[in-house]
Amino acid sequence: QVQLVESGGGLVQAGASLRLSCAASGRTFSSYAMGWFRQAPGKEREAVTAIRWSGGNTYYADSVKGRFTISRDNAKNSVYLQMNSLKPEDTAVYYCAADTTKPYIPLSTIFLPASYDSWGQGTQVTVSS
Predict the structure, then answer these.
(1) C-alpha span between 5 and 109 (Å, rounded)
(2) What value does the mean pLDDT take over residues 53-65?
(3) Which residue among 35, 51, 61, 112 is buried most deeply as judged by most CB within 10 Å?
(4) What is the distance between the terminal CA atoms of the chain, rounded to a whole angstrom?
(5) 22-36, 59-73, 74-88: range with lowest mean pLDDT
(6) What pLDDT shows up at residue 30?
(7) Average pLDDT over residues 13-21
(8) How far is CA 53 from CA 32, 58, 78, in A?
(9) Cβ contact 48:38 at 8 Å
(10) How far apart are CA 37 and CA 93, in angstroms?
(11) Per-residue pLDDT for 74 more than 90?
C-alpha cells in the first residue's frame, strides 16, 4: 500500500518557523486527499489541516489558521506543512495521512482520523517558551 514518511521536525523557540515534509512511496495515487494531524502526550490525535487532490481546497483547525499552510506537489508525491509563529501548545508529534480508498471525503468528516487509511510514523515538533 502507500507508505508515508514525515521529516522536518525539531526543537525551536516560540515564534520560530518549521517546514514539515511528507513523502509518499509504494503504491501511490495522485487523486487522494491528505492531511496533517498531531498528538501531544496524554491527548487525543487532532486534525491540523487537510488538502484535496487538486490543491485548491484546504482546511485548517482554528488553532492554526493564519500561522500554518498546507500544500502538495503531486508530481513529487509530497505534501508540506509550513508552520510559522510557533507556540508551545504546538508541541506534538506530527503525522501526515492519506485517504487512498474514497473518491471524496465529505467536508463534515475531513478532520476525522478515521477518514484516512495511510499514516506516517510521525515527526516530533517541540516549541520552547
Answers:
(1) 24
(2) 90
(3) 35
(4) 40
(5) 22-36
(6) 59
(7) 98
(8) 5, 10, 11
(9) yes
(10) 8
(11) no
Residue 81 contacts residue 20 (beta carbons within 8 Å): yes
Among the listed residues 44, 34, 51, the one whose alpha carbon sits nearest the alpha carbon of residue 100: 34
Cell of 126: 517541540
Cα(41)–Cα(33) distance, rounded to whole angstroms? 27
Which amino acid is present at 116? Y
- Radius of gyration of the chain from Cα atoms? 14
User: Which pLDDT score, from 0 to 100, does residue 100 have?
Assistant: 87
Q: Which residues share a beta bridge with 78?
A: 23, 73
* Angle, vertex CA 112, rays to CA 102 and CA 86, nearest 5: 120
Query: What are the beta bridge partners of residue 2?
Result: 26
